[in-house]
């Protein structure tokens, strides 16, 4: 393990690097971009939930002055392409529409207005096909099939112990049957894609969290070699998993090729909310038991997710099985089913916002039956450092088998030796946060018992709740992230790592990690995250990957650059001293304390020493992360514990959030201000999911009918307590950069069960999500 | 595709009215335009002409006179929000304006616009009906006055003739003590009304309900009055009505409501909330008239 | 011809009156700081000031803005000398992705002109005309209070 030296940059709440451009409005998103002489594209979308094009006549559209090119399914490749994590699988255009709003054709024209007019002039003769909107229906044999592979993906299962035995050992058992609404990202800032070809090479500008995967997607969708694709991923709005690789980007690339000019397709807000992606609708049916002394005995879970038309997932990313480590017997199944509705995919927190919430509810109901306080019940059943990660049982068996019992066989020896024990939690826990939070929140004083309001005033009843959440810290399964750190001749530093910029501060925190590793001031470090010609392959900002796995690679690359420059300096400026005796502090290279020589130099001096040298030594340093980060899903988790107070109007069902405390354990906090924003942001998104947000669909057509911000309700500043507090528990991560690990998704996971429990305590009833005023009143039996 | 329209900017009521008369139904009077822009973008309306009224001077005012309160048709909602500072009698309307849309919308949205948009959920219509307000309208045929209650014919439809525009809303001051209240159901702090109720009651010297208006919003094709609720209240001694009595009035009001299911709420919820809101409106009024603290 | 005064500069643009102010600011004048997200007056990303009052420019016709002083995010400060509201948002990190930020800053500037010494509740309610989907809500409120303090000190000195 590395020495924990005093940190100079990591841990500081410095303003983010793009702060000035954000407050000046000069930060450019894809919609703000344009290229010289570009044409404007618009997409023709299907009016039918399921239909095949019998004939398509574009002649009237072509005849409209100003129309440059029209793309139809006759122009597009016949192969499927897949977005990261099975979030999309389909052909760019294939003459079949699978949801209302599905891409059917596209027009490029001199102006946006002409393009809009032109798409209305395209005549299509449709063969209407049978459709299915309900996932339970779609899962049945004989149901209309949404896609050629069939509607139903093989279920993913996790099992350990013996659930029959576990059930027999239980003193209390509860069942749950909970449906979770489809949440819409409702990302501000919209998106656009600009594609420009130069001979057989294409460049794309678009807001994306996953630059490398987008390049892979273009390659897969269109058969273009990866070295002829350049993605310039721009900052996005509040993406949460929306803007990764989306089919409209592929349409743009092909339309630009046909047009022979750069084309920009810009999506309006309704397109963003109704035709791209959403959180799956999910259904949890489960059963859980515990003993009289409050120990969980078993879990049975049958969870279904609706993939919409093009999602292809068979799992929904959850770590709650690990979190509730007290469960000794379990059988959990997740199944993905396609329907003729807009594609569904990963949304911040994924299964830790749904299946996990069903588990928290069952745990609460068991705690109530067995007579345990919510905080206590969690503390006695949740995971601590060193505990086995139950949810990995099948995975661990498979890995051990496939690697002959040595999963780290190909990992460099220095890394192997310090790598944590696989399949056991390496650090972090909710338990200390439960105790700390309970004290800060005055839980003992304010909690009046299960389903009992903490105060009543007329029709207003108040209640408090606690919820926990966890998630992975990035995953290695889709590919390993690499970073490059370049030292320029003037001594300035640039980091290249493929990541998203959706407000989580990657352009700053990656710089902090690199600056710390190099020993230079943060001011001289800049970060490039979006240019795939410059950045090596990275897993993008998915699954809370950016700091943990991305940051690890950045640190390795910075340390490599540091080694190289110190070797040069030692040889050329310090009379062949051992480079290990040198250090860089605040950009100055000099001997470590206690070493002979008081000479100092700088990075730029060392590099410029050789510029006029006829022997031509290196003038710039490129540091790389040479060893891939070994597997981490097998031991690292992030944890969140949230406390909330609500006030419910028992006559109208309206809920107000009065008080909020969020605790977070993501190891070392690289930038407290950035991370507080992530924690509160997750809490607010979780509260939205729990209280107001639901994408509603027409029963006739399956189209989203509230794809707008008037009727898709988001929390505003006055809907959330301004004095909400964030407390960090920094249990040092053994491998993460400076002890840091992922943080983006556990906060939303904790917020949802916390507020659900608070509403139960205030009202005496469990209300399903979203807990809109109407749903509360119905749950109370007052309608 | 959304229509392309010509933009006109008359500087007098006479010009505006004449323009509208000449251009006919392809032209729309545009005040703040906040509802119209949305409808135009959604292609629910396809105007070929926009007659921007906001350059006309002298239509934005709040005048407190002895027997009457006058509000110019083009008075913005944000000016109405501040109106209680000028005249405490306008407190209900100021409170209502504060609930509407966002600060930004209120800067340019106008009272006439809210009325003529004629949404059953329009926040200003129920309280104006409760307070016995009138409209002054001017059209090609001249000017006339009508009670606000007569304005709405259905969702988005008013009784105004083609070239008529609302130039003023006026409220005769009551001769006896009167209190009014408006309550609505909403979700987040910025929202449209899912259900709303307004009431205004005057009491005789012996505390008996003299005149009463109970108006309900978003539970019928227009904003309606509840004859049943009003009948129960007329002649009653307000201060001796119990919680159960007020609940019964609420139930009577619910019987007059014919709400629909829509993306925001079901008819069942709306009906249940009419009962709650009417009771709460009456509690507010009762407290106001007896001077009790809230 | 539509004559618009934006950030104290006057522009004449043909055929703009029947288009939204947001569209004219962005596409004709190249002022991209005014962001358009929902385009239906709900999110406030496109907030600009008309005679010092906040409006969602996606709902205002450019023609209606004639004869008024239009102020956009580009007009309130320079990189070398940010407006106190801009600096306050940086100090409190009242943003994440930045898509809503110019809109919030314009709303805050207008609010503080009317209410220079607001309470936390007043600031929170006043900022509710804008949406932050990333969820920086408490830090946005702190930014408004921070700006109020800065501007108070500025007046006193």
Provide structural commentary:
The complex is a heterotrimer of chains A (783), B (294) and C (157). With 783 residues, chain A is an alpha+beta fold. Chain A has 21 helices and 31 strands. Chain A has 3 domains: 19-26 and 477-624, Aldehyde oxidase/xanthine dehydrogenase, molybdopterin binding domain (Aldehyde Oxidoreductase, domain 4), CATH 3.30.365; 33-129 and 190-236 and 243-276, Aldehyde Oxidoreductase, domain 3 (Alpha-Beta Complex); 279-473 and 632-779, Aldehyde Oxidoreductase, domain 4 (2-Layer Sandwich). In chain A, the strands form 8 sheets. A 7-stranded mixed β-sheet of chain A has the order 3-7-1-14-11-12-13, sandwiched between helices. A 5-stranded mixed β-sheet of chain A has the order 9-18-17-16-10, sandwiched between helices. Chain A has a 5-stranded mixed β-sheet with strand order 20-21-29-30-31, with helices on both faces. In chain A, helix 19 links the parallel strand 30 and strand 31. Chain B folds into 3 domains: 6-52, Uridine Diphospho-n-acetylenolpyruvylglucosamine Reductase, domain 2 (2-Layer Sandwich); 62-172, 2-Layer Sandwich (Uridine Diphospho-n-acetylenolpyruvylglucosamine Reductase, domain 3), CATH 3.30.465; 178-290, CO dehydrogenase flavoprotein, C-terminal domain (Enolase-like, domain 1), CATH 3.30.390. In chain B, strands 4-5-10-6-7 form a 5-stranded antiparallel β-sheet. In chain B, a hairpin with a 5-residue loop joins strand 12 (195-203) and strand 13 (209-217). The relative contact order of chain B is 0.11. Chain C has 2 domains: 2-75, Ubiquitin-like (UB roll), CATH 3.10.20.30; 84-156, [2Fe-2S]-binding domain (DNA polymerase, domain 1), CATH 1.10.150. At the A-C interface, helix 1 and helix 19 of A face helix 2, helix 3, helix 4 and helix 5 of C.
């Amino acid at each position: 393990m590395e020495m924990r030296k005093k940190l100079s940059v990591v841990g500081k709440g410095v303003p983010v690097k793009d702060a000035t451009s954000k407050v000046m409005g000069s930060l450019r998103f894809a919609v703000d971009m344009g290229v010289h002489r570009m044409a404007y594209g618009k997409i023709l979308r299907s009016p039918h939930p399921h239909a095949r094009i019998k004939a398509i006549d574009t002649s009237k559209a072509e005849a409209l002055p100003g129309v440059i090119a029209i793309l139809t399914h006759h122009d597009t490749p016949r192969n499927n392409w897949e977005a990261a994590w099975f979030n999309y699988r389909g052909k760019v255009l294939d003459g079949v529409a699978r949801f209302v709003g599905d891409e059917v054709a596209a027009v490029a024209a001199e102006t946006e207005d002409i393009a809009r007019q032109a798409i209305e002039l395209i005549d299509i003769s449709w063969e209407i096909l049978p459709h299915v909107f309900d996932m339970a229906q779609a899962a049945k044999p004989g149901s209309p099939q949404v896609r050629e592979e069939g509607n139903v993906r093989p279920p993913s299962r996790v099992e350990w112990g013996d659930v029959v035995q576990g059930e027999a050992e239980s003193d209390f058992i509860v069942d749950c049957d909970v449906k979770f609404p489809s949440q819409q990202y409702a990302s501000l800032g919209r998106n656009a894609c600009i594609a420009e070809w130069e001979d057989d090479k294409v460049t794309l500008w678009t807001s994306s969290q996953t630059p490398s995967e987008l390049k892979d997607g273009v390659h897969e969708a269109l058969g273009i070699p990866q070295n002829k694709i350049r993605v310039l991923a721009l900052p996005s709005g509040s993406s949460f998993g929306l803007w990764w690789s989306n089919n409209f980007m592929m349409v743009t690339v092909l339309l630009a090729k046909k047009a022979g000019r750069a084309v920009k397709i810009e999506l309006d807000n309704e397109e963003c909310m109704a035709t791209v992606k959403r959180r799956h609708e999910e259904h949890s049916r489960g059963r859980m038991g515990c003993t009289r002394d409050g120990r969980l005995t078993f879990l049975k879970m049958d969870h279904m997710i609706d993939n919409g038309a093009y999602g292809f997932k068979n799992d929904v990313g959850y770590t709650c099985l690990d979190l509730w480590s007290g469960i000794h017997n379990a059988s959990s199944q997740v199944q993905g089913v396609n329907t003729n509705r807009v594609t569904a995919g990963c949304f911040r927190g994924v299964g830790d916002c749904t299946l996990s919430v069903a588990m928290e509810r069952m745990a609460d109901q068991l705690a109530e039956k067995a007579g345990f306080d919510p905080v206590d019940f969690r503390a006695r059943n949740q995971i601590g450092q060193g505990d086995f990660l139950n949810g990995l049982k099948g995975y661990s068996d498979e890995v051990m088998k496939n690697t002959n019992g040595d999963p780290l066989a190909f990992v460099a020896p220095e890394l192997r030796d310090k790598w944590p024990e696989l399949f056991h939690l390496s650090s972090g826990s909710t338990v200390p946060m439960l105790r700390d939070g309970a004290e800060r929140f005055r839980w003992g004083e304010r909690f009046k018992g299960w389903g009992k309001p903490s105060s009543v005033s007329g029709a207003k009843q108040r209640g408090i709740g606690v919820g926990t959440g966890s998630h992975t810290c990035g995953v290695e399964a889709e590919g390993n992230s690499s970073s490059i750190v370049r030292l320029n001749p003037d001594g300035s530093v640039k980091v290249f790592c493929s990541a998203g910029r959706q407000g989580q501060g990657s352009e700053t925190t990656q710089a902090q990690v690199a600056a710390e590793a190099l020993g230079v001031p943060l001011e001289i470090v800049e970060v490039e995250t979006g240019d795939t010609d410059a950045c090596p392959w990275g897993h993008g900002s998915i699954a809370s990957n950016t700091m943990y796995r991305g940051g690890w690679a950045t640190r390795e690359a910075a340390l490599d650059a540091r080694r190289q420059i110190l070797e040069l300096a030692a040889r050329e400026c310090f009379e062949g001293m051992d480079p290990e005796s040198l250090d860089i502090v605040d950009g100055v290279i000099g001997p470590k304390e206690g070493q002979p020589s008081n000479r100092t130099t700088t990075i730029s001096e060392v590099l410029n020493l050789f510029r006029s040298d006829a022997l031509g030594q290196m003038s710039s340093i490129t540091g790389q992360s040479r060893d891939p980060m070994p597997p981490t899903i097998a031991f690292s988790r992030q944890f969140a514990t949230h406390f909330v107070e609500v006030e419910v109007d028992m006559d109208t069902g309206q809920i107000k959030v009065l008080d909020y405390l969020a605790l977070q354990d993501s190891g070392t906090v690289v930038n407290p201000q950035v991370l507080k924003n992530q924690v509160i942001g997750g809490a607010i998104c979780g509260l939205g999911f729990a209280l107001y947000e639901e994408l509603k669909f027409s029963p006739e057509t399956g189209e989203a009918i509230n794809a707008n911000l008037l009727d898709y309700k988001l929390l505003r500043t006055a809907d959330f307590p301004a004095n909400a507090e964030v407390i960090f528990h920094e249990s040092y991560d053994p491998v993460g950069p400076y002890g840091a690990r992922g943080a983006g998704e556990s906060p939303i996971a904790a917020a949802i069960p916390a507020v659900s429990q608070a509403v139960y305590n205030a009202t005496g009833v469990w209300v399903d999500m979203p807990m809109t005023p109407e749903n509360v009143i119905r749950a109370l039996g007052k309608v | 595709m959304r229509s392309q329209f010509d933009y006109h900017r008359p500087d007098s009521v006479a010009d505006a009215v004449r323009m509208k008369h000449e251009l006919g139904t392809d032209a729309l009077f545009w005040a703040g335009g906040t509802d119209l822009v949305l409808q135009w973008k959604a292609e629910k309306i396809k105007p070929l002409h926009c007659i921007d009224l906001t350059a006309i001077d002298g239509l934005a005012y709040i005048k407190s006179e002895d027997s009457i309160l006058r509000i110019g048709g083009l008075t913005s909602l944000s000016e109405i929000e501040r109106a209680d500072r000028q005249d405490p009698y306008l407190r209900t309307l100021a409170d209502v304006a504060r609930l509407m849309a966002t600060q930004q919308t209120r800067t340019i949205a106008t009272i006439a616009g809210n009325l003529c948009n004629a949404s059953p959920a329009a926040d200003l219509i129920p309280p104006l009906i409760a307070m016995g307000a009138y409209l002054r309208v001017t059209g090609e045929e001249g000017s006339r006055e009508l009670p606000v209650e007569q304005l709405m014919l259905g969702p988005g439809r008013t009784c105004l003739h083609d070239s008529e525009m609302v130039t003023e809303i006026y409220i005769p001051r009551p001769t006896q003590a009167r209190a009014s209240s408006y309550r609505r159901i909403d979700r987040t702090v910025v929202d449209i009304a899912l259900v709303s109720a307004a009431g205004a009651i005057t009491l005789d010297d012996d505390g008996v309900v003299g005149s009463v208006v109970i108006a309900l919003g978003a539970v019928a094709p227009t904003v309606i009055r509840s004859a049943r609720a009003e009948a129960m209240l007329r002649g009653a001694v307000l201060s001796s009505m119990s919680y159960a009595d007020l609940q019964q009035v609420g139930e009577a009001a619910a019987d007059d409501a014919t709400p629909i299911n829509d993306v925001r709420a079901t008819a069942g919820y709306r009906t249940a909330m009419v009962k709650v809101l009417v009771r709460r409106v009456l509690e507010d009024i009762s407290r106001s008239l007896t001077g009790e603290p809230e | 011809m539509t004559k618009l005064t934006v950030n104290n500069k006057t522009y004449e643009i043909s055929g703009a009156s029947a288009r939204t102010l947001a569209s004219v600011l962005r596409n004709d004048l190249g002022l991209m700081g005014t962001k358009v997200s929902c385009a239906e007056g709900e999110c406030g990303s496109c907030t600009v000031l008309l005679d010092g009052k906040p409006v969602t420019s996606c709902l205002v016709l450019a023609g209606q803005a004639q004869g008024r002083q239009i102020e956009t995010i580009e007009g309130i400060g320079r990189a070398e000398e940010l407006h106190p509201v801009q600096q306050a948002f940086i100090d409190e990190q009242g943003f994440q992705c930045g898509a809503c930020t110019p809109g919030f800053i314009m709303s805050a500037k207008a609010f503080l002109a009317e209410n220079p010494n607001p309470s936390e509740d007043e600031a929170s309610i006043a900022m509710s005309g804008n949406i932050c989907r990333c969820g920086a809500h408490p830090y946005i409120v702190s930014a408004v209070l921070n700006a109020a303090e800065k501007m108070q000190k500025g007046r006193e000195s």
